[in-house]
Amino acid sequence: QVQLVESGGGLVQAGGSLRLSCAASGRGVSRLTMGWFRRGQGKDREFVAAISWGGGNAIYGDSVKGRFTISRENGKNIVYLQMNSLQVEDTAVYYCAADLAHRVEAFRGGSWGQGTQVTVSS
Questions:
Q1: Distance separating alpha carbons of residues 45 and 58, to the nearest angstrom
Q2: What are the Cα distances from residue 72, in Å, to 31, 43, 50, 77, 80?
Q3: Rounded to the nearest 5°, which phi and psi values hold at 105?
Q4: Do the Cβ atoms of 115 and 36 come closer than 8 Å?
Q5: pLDDT per position in the chain (122 positions), as tens?
Q6: Host H or E run for residue 9
Q7: How far apart are CA 98 and CA 29, in angstroms?
Q8: What are phi and psi of 31, to 5 degrees?
Q9: Cβ contact 18:120 at 8 Å
């Protein structure tokens, strides 16, 4: 079983930056594709970003391309989401997720963290 624990959420002004972290533990975590989803209040869950187990491939949702960067530190089983140029529309609970997808494009999330709140003020 995989455990995922997010941290780094908070309140930031529009245009600012935050970095989220997700610490993974459990069997085989270094071989998992990992990523982030978010859910704003009253909105559907939205894909944010995913990264392959080796860190060589990453994909992003259209609304965050060019502003967010996903990376992973495999030696520590940590995935990061660097969020720059934050907008009010980025306000959401951000969830770390992991699965065994062989291709990052097939990432859907099977294991989930508890979520961390990101609030962007105008």
A1: 19
A2: 12, 28, 10, 7, 6
A3: -70, -20
A4: no
A5: 899 999 999 999 999 999 999 999 998 888 899 999 999 999 999 999 999 988 889 999 999 999 999 999 877 789 999 999 999 999 999 999 999 888 899 999 999 999 999 999 99
A6: none
A7: 9
A8: -100, 5
A9: no
Q: Which token pair is 22?
A: 């997700």
What are residue 65's phi and psi, to 5 degrees? Answer: -55, 135
Cβ contact 87:66 at 8 Å? no
Model pLDDT, residue 75: 79
The predicted pLDDT at position 82 comes to 98
| The token pair that represents 3 in the structure block | 């455990």
Longest dimension (CA), the chain: 42
Reading the block at residue 45, the tokens are: 């869950």
